[in-house]
User: What shape does this take?
Amino acid sequence: MKKYTLGEFEEIVLLAIAILHKSAYGMAVKDEIESQLDREVSLGALHASLVRLEEKGYIRSSKGEETEERAGRPRSYFEITAVGKKAITYAKESRDKMWNAIPKVVFEFTGA
Assistant: This one.
């Protein structure tokens, strides 16, 4: 399988977008990550990751409808592309392969 470059936070962002499916916009992605992982996410880090993921072709964005609550600005929604789906599948398979290669003795209690 082709290698895909995907940092840890990028993987987390892709997974959150997948969880949210058609409801994935910036604040929803941030809230999902924070909820799922009990981890604080800065908007700057999230925005930078979304830009990188789109540049890599792993996600695409589209504009929603303009709303009064957003001062007439449309919300940007994100969805995973076919390449993005391959990237997170590759990341999962790679991690699973590594986890499965760890000898069981490594996790046994040694009493130390």
Observations:
- The chain has one domain: 8-104.
